[in-house]
Amino acid sequence: MERTAIRRRLTWQVGTVTDVRRETETARTLVLEVPEWQGHLAGQHLDVRLTAEDGYRASRSYSVASAWTGDTIELTVEQVPRGEVSPYLVDVLKVGDPLEIRGPVGGWFVWTPEQEGPVQLIGGGSGVVPLRAMLRAHAAAASTTKARLLYSVRRPESVIYVSDLKELAASDDVDVRLVYTREAPAGEPRIGRIDADLISQYAFKPEDGATTYVCGPTPFVETVADLLVAAGHDPAKVRTERFGPTGGPR
Ligand SMILES: Cc1cc2nc3c(=O)[nH]c(=O)nc-3n(C[C@H](O)[C@H](O)[C@H](O)COP(=O)(O)OP(=O)(O)OC[C@H]3O[C@@H](n4cnc5c(N)ncnc54)[C@H](O)[C@@H]3O)c2cc1C
After folding, report:
1. Is pTM, for the whole model, over 0.85?
2. Is the CB of 105 under 6 A from ligand 1?
3. DSSP readout, 86-138?
4. 134: domain CATH number?
5. Does residue 62 have its Cβ closer than 6 Å to ligand 1?
6. Mean pLDDT, consecutive 10-residue segments, the chain of 250 residues?
7. Within this chain, do residues 100 and 125 fall inside the same structural domain, yes or no?
8. Residue 7 near ligand 1, beta carbon < 6 Å
């Protein structure tokens, strides 16, 4: 029974793009309808496989950006310059096109509404994608769990999910803080990376018993995880996902 479930999860399936949304100049959200999709947990990712006309294949991992509501799934892809897969997903794929996917993958970097204790989300760049799925799951369950998002971006134009985040920031449910590393909007004087000072100002305290999810480029994730542990957070409650290079020809 269990083996059947695993086999089914790891089989390539074909989804259809039903909508696309430009998030920033370099990032786009793809909405996919996948008839055989078995559902996923917030934080999980999947593999995407592209096949060229000559049969050459390449696959990469992408986090699911949406909570599972039984309908469609969303991916948000940030274009990596000269990348093999991401430029195609951001600039070429269009509504009606098929897309091969396999998943969901990952069981540690997930949040479910049943989980106890506050939830602290810390993302850098496109690392906000699985954190947004967690916030979506939080909203879909009308969860009363305290949630905070600390999101590090280069400049205001690089913010992914800008309208979602504005809506969340205006509600009482989630505390949203943006940190700009290169250029801040008017009225936001601070420019800089997440450091010990910001962690002590905006993160839950170690005694709050929060589970922290850190996602982004590998150096970002390692720095933030080290800062949290140095600030007294239990390493077992700091879950990380590194968006380093994945896949390759296949
Ligand atoms: C678990 C997981 C989840 C991920 N989820 C997402 C997601 O939701 N959205 C998203 O946009 N990306 C995500 N990624 C990254 C994604 O898998 C690809 O690595 C990325 O899209 C680049 O692929 P590419 O084929 O365009 O570039 P490649 O052809 O693989 O690489 C081109 C060049 O860019 C460098 N490079 C590759 N990946 C990165 C990167 N992530 N950052 C900086 N330089 C890189 C390579 O070393 C190489 O020099 C995730 C990665 C992991 C491991």
Report:
1. yes
2. no
3. HHIIIII--TT-EEEEEEEE-SSS-B-TT--S-EEEEEEGGGHHHHHHHHHHH
4. 3.40.50.80
5. yes
6. 53 96 97 94 97 95 94 95 96 98 95 95 98 95 94 95 88 89 85 91 94 96 97 97 73
7. no
8. no
